[in-house]
């Protein structure tokens, strides 16, 4: 297992960037912070006003993943559905995504890299599932087509 991020005091929340539907006129709000308890908290409110409906937090990275098959994320959600997203190249428009559900308790989500499929603006892209040797961006997104408050706590992200 190779830890990618463990949200220790050396993790800078400024390295993570929130994006909401405000980029297209929506009014959703989100926040990301790393706490003194070695957790990251992604929270806010998703609004459907002005054709909105999503919030995302992303992080640029440079991970060699050739010898790994699985992403392991230790998290505590609020019972809502989210997406984990990766890009092999930050220049591409599409993301490779894996939806996951949270249960309100601490859990470790395991996502096979080869099961992550390409999406662009909510539509599946007709290309093969993720098979690259590198990951250059990771992200978490909420967009359940409902107005809702959300809170996702993150403890660690690792490759296995």
Write a compact overview of the structure shown.
It holds the Pfam family CIA30. The chain is an all-beta fold.
Topology:
Elements: E1 2-5, E2 16-20, E3 29-34, E4 40-46, E5 55-64, E6 70-76, E7 81-87, E8 95-101, E9 106-112, E10 117-120, E11 123-124, E12 134-142, E13 148-159
Antiparallel strand pairs: 1-13, 2-5, 3-4, 4-13, 5-12, 6-9, 6-13, 7-8, 7-12, 8-10, 10-11
Task: Give a verbal description of the structure.
With 160 residues, this protein is an all-beta fold. Helices cover 0% and strands 54% of the residues. It has no helices and 13 strands. The protein has strands at residues 2-5, 16-20, 29-34, 40-46, 55-64, 70-76, 81-87, 95-101, 106-112, 117-120, 123-124, 134-142, 148-159. The strands form 2 sheets. It has a 7-stranded antiparallel sheet, with no helix packed on it. It is globular and about 45 Å long. The chain starts with a strand and ends with a strand. InterPro entries: Galactose-bd-like_sf, NADH-UbQ_OxRdtase-assoc_prot30, NDUFAF1. Belongs to the CIA30 family. It holds the Pfam family CIA30. Residues 5-154 form the NADH:ubiquinone oxidoreductase intermediate-associated protein domain.
Comma- or semicolon-separated keywords:
160 residues, mainly beta, Jelly Rolls, seven-stranded antiparallel beta sheet, six-stranded antiparallel beta sheet, globular, NADH-UbQ_OxRdtase-assoc_prot30, Galactose-bd-like_sf
């Amino acid at each position: 297992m190779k830890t990618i991020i463990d949200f220790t005091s050396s993790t800078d929340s400024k390295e993570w960037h929130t994006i909401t539907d405000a980029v297209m006129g929506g009014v959703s709000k989100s926040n990301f912070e790393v706490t003194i308890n070695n957790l990251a908290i992604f929270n806010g409110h998703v609004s459907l006003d002005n054709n909105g409906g999503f919030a995302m937090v992303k992080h640029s990275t440079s991970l060699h993943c050739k010898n790994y098959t699985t992403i392991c994320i230790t998290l505590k959600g609020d019972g809502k559905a989210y997406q984990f997203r990766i890009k092999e190249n930050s220049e591409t428009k599409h993301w490779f995504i894996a939806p996951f559900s949270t249960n309100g308790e601490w859990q470790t989500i395991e996502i096979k890299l080869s099961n992550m499929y390409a999406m662009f603006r909510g539509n599946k892209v007709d290309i093969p599932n993720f098979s690259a040797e590198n990951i250059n961006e990771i992200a978490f997104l909420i967009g359940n087509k409902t107005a809702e408050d959300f809170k996702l706590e993150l403890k660690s992200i690792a490759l296995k």
